[in-house]
């Protein structure tokens, strides 16, 4: 049994021995360094959480490490963990979250920074526990967020609780009564939640004068513009280097400054408290403030830590020191097994095998996602019998490092899909021989599926697969000006200047030649490489070919390019359309989502820069609530944060 004070939110078993001190007395990390520094035997693999498993279980498509560090982060694993909020399976029940994550208590893990900005909350809203009012919800019994209805808060009648009045006001309940209640019963700074939630030394305060002045004009029909606290303060008692230390004065930040801490790699406030009491807290937190690691043969100590960490954590692709000094570290030059060397040899950087192709660029040059050898996204270890699994396991099978010398599979050359960073796999294909069931592009020699002919997408680099096609019903009337046997639709600078003298068309052979002829780079969509090392595709290119924007920002009334071409390309008048609305050519109609089948313009001009409708469109929009961009929370109607048990659903 651990005696522990971490604030209102109870210590979860996944937070014990996670490398971050949560309890004010440090009880959650006592003795953990023995477990941290243990070494597995030669026939075993050591998981990120120090657990040992047989080498035979490594990269076999089945999770054996509780933190899943024995498997590549493939879509199958994401689906399993994605189901944790709604299903009860052992993978969720036994799952450990990473050091940079927060446990939702049911197997779901979210990035720790959501404790600050709540952009991607737990499905059960555990990250909002005791502070649901930040998002306009009510905190009811057991810290649960009530997302529907107004019956969760106690009545203000006969109450002298300052915080209760604030809670009513934050959710928009009885604003005038709440406002008067705050004036009568609250001090200048209102602590809410009334006790620390995330850490015993992290406290939040509202400025009474801001709230009172907002409704001074009796405008009670308006919601409070800012529901987040005004001040975040560090003070109280916490263990630092094995000694309990009390700081009465502490230090405070504005909420806007508090948001900046979300850029740190993991929950930092216990370490910041100890730095503060040592008068070492810097205003500009950066890696430059850190000191070199203290390294011996078995362990190292970060400058800001007290407990030692195992030497295997150096250069593994995970940041374990608050300022990242354990990564890109050239002090330690021993390469451990299961490490991929990033392509940029000017820096010392490695990532663990299981991070390859996970959609996140851990390497500074992005070579863990797309290298000059291959696209790691397509090199997937889904089941133990697959070739990629054998390559990943080869470090223990025959002590040969095949990952760092891997080459692209022969069948992925000249298939019209760019699989390497420099694109060499789609060049010099003129002598390529395509299978009989595929179509060969006449100019480039690339092989494409016959089903891709006339599908609305450029598959051949110059788009010749979209010539001589039957006219699609859903195309802009302006496109009819082009000769479909030899031209592509293209809005050029000349056309913008004079729509009478010039047509919005170019010869097809000008597409894919590396020369930008169309505004937005539409003619080079299959060959131009954006700064993120991926093909332009359906994105919009602007600002001297330095910026690639989502197709959703085109002609929405908001200038996203310095050269303004994202708005100028719609050369007609916007008339009275609001921001984020698309103006139809008729000077009358405004539609909110131009690529959605729900809305349309009479002449289909809204479709001129939309992805193929057969492809799935992802909604990446966010709303802003109280100054924090958020995703709308689902309403799971869950009672409590169940762990190792069953969910209880309300009727």
Automatic annotation (TrEMBL):
It comes from the Eukaryota. Residues 1-19 form the signal peptide. Disulfide bonds join 40-52, 47-65, 454-469, 555-570. Its main location: membrane. SUPFAM superfamilies: LDL receptor-like module. One of its GO terms (cellular component) is plasma membrane. Keywords: Disulfide bond, Glycoprotein, Membrane, Receptor, Repeat, Signal, Transmembrane, Transmembrane helix. It is found in: Membrane. It is a single-pass membrane protein. This is Uncharacterized protein. It comes from Adineta steineri.
């Amino acid at each position: 049994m651990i005696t522990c004070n971490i604030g209102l939110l109870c210590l979860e078993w996944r937070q014990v021995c996670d490398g971050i001190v949560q309890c004010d007395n440090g009880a959650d990390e006592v003795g953990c360094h023995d477990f941290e520094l243990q070494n597995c035997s030669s026939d075993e693999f050591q998981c990120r959480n120090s657990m040992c498993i047989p080498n035979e279980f490594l990269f076999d498509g089945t999770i054996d490490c509780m933190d899943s560090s024995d498997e590549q982060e493939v879509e199958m694993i994401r689906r399993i963990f994605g189901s944790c909020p709604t299903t009860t399976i052992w993978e969720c029940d036994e799952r450990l979250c990473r050091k940079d994550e927060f446990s939702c208590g049911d197997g779901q893990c979210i990035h720790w920074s959501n404790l600050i900005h709540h952009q991607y909350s737990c499905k059960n809203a555990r990250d909002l526990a005791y502070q649901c009012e930040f998002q306009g919800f009510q905190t009811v019994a057991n810290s649960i967020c009530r997302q529907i209805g107004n019956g969760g808060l106690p009545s203000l009648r006969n109450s002298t609780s300052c915080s209760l009045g604030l809670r009513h006001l934050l959710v928009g309940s009885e604003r005038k009564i709440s406002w008067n209640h705050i004036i009568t019963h609250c001090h200048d700074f209102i602590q809410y939640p009334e006790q620390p939630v995330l850490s015993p030394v992290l406290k939040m305060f509202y400025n009474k004068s801001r709230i009172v002045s907002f409704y001074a004009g009796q405008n009670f029909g308006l919601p409070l513009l800012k529901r987040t606290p005004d001040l975040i303060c560090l003070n109280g008692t916490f263990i630092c280097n094995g000694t309990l230390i009390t700081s009465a004065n502490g230090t405070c930040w504005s909420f806007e400054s508090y948001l900046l801490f979300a850029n740190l790699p993991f929950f930092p406030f216990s370490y910041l408290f100890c730095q503060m009491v040592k008068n070492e807290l810097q205003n500009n937190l950066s890696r430059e403030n850190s000191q070199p690691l203290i390294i011996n043969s078995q362990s190292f100590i970060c400058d800001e830590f007290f407990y030692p960490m195992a030497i295997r954590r150096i250069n593994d692709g995970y940041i374990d020191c608050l300022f990242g000094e354990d990564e890109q570290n050239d002090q330690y030059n021993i390469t451990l097994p299961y490490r991929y060397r990033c392509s940029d040899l000017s820096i010392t950087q490695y990532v663990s095998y299981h991070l390859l192709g996970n959609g996140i660029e851990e390497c500074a040059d992005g070579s863990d996602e797309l290298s000059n050898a291959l696209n790691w996204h397509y090199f997937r270890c889904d089941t133990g019998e697959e070739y990629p699994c054998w390559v990943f396991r080869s470090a223990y099978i025959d002590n040969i490092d095949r990952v760092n010398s891997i080459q692209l599979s022969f069948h992925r050359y000249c298939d019209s899909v760019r699989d390497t960073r420099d694109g060499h796999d789609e060049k010099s294909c003129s002598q390529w021989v395509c299978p009989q069931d595929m179509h060969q592009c006449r100019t480039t020699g690339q092989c494409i599926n016959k089903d891709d002919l006339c599908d609305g997408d450029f598959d051949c680099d110059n788009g010749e697969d979209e010539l001589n096609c039957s006219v699609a019903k859903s195309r802009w009337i302006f496109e009819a000006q082009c000769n479909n046997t030899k031209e592509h639709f293209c809005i050029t600078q000349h056309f913008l200047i004079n729509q009478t003298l010039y047509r919005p068309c170019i010869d097809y052979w000008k597409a894919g030649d590396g020369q930008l002829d169309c505004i937005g780079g539409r003619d080079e969509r299959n060959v131009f490489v954006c700064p993120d090392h991926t093909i332009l595709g359906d994105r919009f290119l602007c600002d001297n070919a330095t910026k690639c924007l989502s197709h959703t920002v085109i002609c929405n009334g908001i200038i996203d390019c310095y050269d303004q071409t994202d708005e100028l390309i719609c050369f007609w008048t916007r008339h009275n359309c609001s921001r984020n609305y698309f103006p139809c050519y008729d000077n009358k109609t405004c539609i909110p989502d131009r690529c959605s089948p729900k809305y349309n313009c009479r002449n289909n001009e809204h479709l001129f820069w939309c992805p193929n409708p057969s492809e799935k469109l992802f909604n990446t929009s966010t709303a802003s609530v109280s100054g924090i961009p958020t995703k709308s929370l689902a309403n799971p109607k869950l009672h409590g944060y169940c762990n190792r048990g069953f969910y209880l659903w309300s009727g």
